[in-house]
């Protein structure tokens, strides 16, 4: 078998949630012989449990119940497979996990936290390799830490891409000639040999990096939705799956809230020009979305993304008038606290910026030190409870009437901030959280009718 037509197939947590789900994925792999490298997430729910387990000061009783819970999820799959050797391997891993949890209870460290987080993928990949074998695919488990070397930024580790490319050619490619390999998303290894993780939802990104390193022909992301939609189908039943979309548009969507892909996923794919397919492992026959460089049509409006829980910070200083360096000082404070600004607009003496708020982290930061430090420089006001809506498409910045089409539709809804012009692919604005769904519904029915 040569590698001149290689697909890297990634299966997300819900796709490998239980035995039945894994069987469907195994069929997908089996039905297309180009699927040779398989990247899996942890079975659905496991990483969330591990996150809790990795935290400081977990009561012993809760530790026990989390471990039991994780064990149950894996056991439910194992009973169906009835493979003693595999069951033993998973038991060993569960014992190790219990040890790490105990150690974490005594002396908490970020390094142990990452080690703990890695067990979901360590187990699901071993199990899925066996499920593949059970349907007649010659497959083996591969430990991605042999090739995915990272720095030591635990929880958000950065991958050494050059090293990965070298390692992939040396260790992975020869093995892929002979067997389908099943490996882990999300995890890597630092120079000291400790396990690291790439950030929540990072399995997509792992798969994309591996596809790039192997110069794969395709990257397939199998999840629980039939591709990328024109907007969140939970907001309007008018939402429909997009057949084909360009890298640029899809990247904007991933950044601005469409939760389907980890935002970094498309970067390696774009570098190597690898088409990315997104589909549902539950309903592979329904097709999905193809993301690639060349697309047949480039409509002005492709989709509407919504991101909730945005924080708007406005800084104001008369000293900014005709002054230089003020913005640099403001951004220095933000950079110091590792806060990343999303949207920005300025007027003569004030600047408004938005921040995403993953797991409440930004709000907590902004509420304390950051605002105090900014107040040394200027007046600061902070508003919560906003939603960011991004209209994504093509040539938005050069098309007549875009503003009218969008804002006429939104009559009666207060638009708090507007950003347009930096990208040809989007126009973004903020609205009150309470009016966000209504705004998206109205826009979708007017732009996509
Ligand atoms: N299992 C990890 C998470 O839940 C990585 C992933 O699924 O992409 O974040
Ligand atoms: Mg995911």
Automatic annotation (TrEMBL):
Protein's UniProt keywords contain Glycoprotein: no
Pathway: Amino-acid biosynthesis; L-threonine biosynthesis; L-threonine from L-aspartate: step 1/5; Amino-acid biosynthesis; L-methionine biosynthesis via de novo pathway; L-homoserine from L-aspartate: step 1/3; Amino-acid biosynthesis; L-lysine biosynthesis via DAP pathway; (S)-tetrahydrodipicolinate from L-aspartate: step 1/4
Enzyme Commission code(s) on record: 2.7.2.4
Pfam families in UniProt: AA_kinase, ACT_9
Keywords of the record: Amino-acid biosynthesis, ATP-binding, Kinase, Nucleotide-binding, Transferase
Top EC category: transferase
Record has Amino-acid biosynthesis as a keyword: yes
Catalysed reactions listed for this entry: L-aspartate + ATP = 4-phospho-L-aspartate + ADP
Sequence ranges assigned to domain Aspartate/glutamate/uridylate kinase in this UniProt record: 6-279
Aspartokinase ACT domain: residues covered: 389-446
Family as reported in the entry's similarity comment: Belongs to the aspartokinase family.
Record protein name field: Aspartokinase
Organism: Thalassotalea insulae
Lineage: Bacteria, Pseudomonadati, Pseudomonadota, Gammaproteobacteria, Alteromonadales
Gene name linked to the record: lysC
């Amino acid at each position: 078998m040569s590698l001149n037509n290689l697909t890297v197939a990634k299966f997300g947590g819900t796709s490998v949630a239980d035995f039945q789900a894994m069987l469907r994925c195994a069929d997908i792999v089996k039905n297309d012989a180009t699927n040779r490298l398989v990247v899996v997430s942890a079975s659905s729910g496991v990483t969330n449990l591990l996150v809790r387990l990795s935290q400081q000061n977990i009561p012993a009783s809760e530790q026990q119940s989390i471990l039991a819970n994780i064990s149950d999820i894996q056991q439910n799959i194992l009973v169906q497979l009835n493979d003693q050797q595999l069951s033993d391997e998973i038991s060993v891993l569960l014992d190790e996990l219990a040890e790490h949890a105990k150690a974490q209870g005594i002396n908490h460290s970020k390094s142990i936290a990452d080690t703990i987080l890695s067990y979901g993928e360590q187990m699901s990949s071993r199990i899925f390799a066996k499920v593949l074998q059970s349907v007649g695919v010659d497959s083996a488990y591969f430990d991605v830490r042999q090739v995915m070397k990272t720095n030591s930024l635990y929880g958000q580790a950065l991958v050494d891409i050059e090293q990965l490319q070298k390692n992939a050619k040396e260790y992975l490619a020869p093995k892929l000639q002979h067997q389908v390999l099943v490996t882990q998303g999300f995890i890597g290894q630092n120079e000291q040999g400790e396990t690291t993780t790439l950030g929540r939802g990072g399995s997509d990104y792992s798969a994309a990096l591996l596809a790039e390193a192997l110069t794969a022909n395709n990257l397939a992301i199998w999840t629980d939705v039939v591709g990328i939609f024109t907007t969140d189908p939970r907001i309007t039943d008018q939402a429909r799956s997009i057949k084909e979309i360009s890298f640029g548009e899809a990247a904007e969507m991933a950044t601005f809230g469409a939760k389907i892909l980890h935002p970094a996923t498309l970067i390696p794919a774009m570098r190597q020009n690898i088409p990315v397919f997104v589909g549902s492992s539950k309903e592979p026959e329904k097709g999905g979305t193809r993301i690639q460089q060349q697309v047949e049509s480039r409509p002005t409006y492709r989709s509407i993304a919504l991101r909730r829980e945005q924080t708007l910070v406005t800084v104001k200083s008369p000293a900014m008038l005709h002054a230089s360096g003020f913005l640099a000082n403001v951004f220095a404070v933000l950079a110091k606290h590792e806060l990343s600004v999303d949207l920005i607009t300025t007027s003569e003496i004030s600047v408004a910026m938005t921040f995403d708020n993953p797991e409440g982290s930004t709000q907590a930061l902004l509420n304390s030190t950051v605002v105090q430090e900014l107040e040394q420089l200027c007046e600061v006001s902070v508003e919560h409870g906003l939603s960011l809506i991004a209209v994504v498409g093509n040539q938005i910045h050069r098309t007549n009437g875009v503003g009218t089409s969008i804002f006429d539709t939104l009559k009666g809804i207060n638009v708090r901030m507007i950003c347009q012009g930096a990208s040809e692919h989007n126009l973004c604005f903020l609205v009150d959280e309470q009016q966000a769904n209504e705004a998206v519904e109205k826009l979708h029915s007017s732009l996509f009718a």
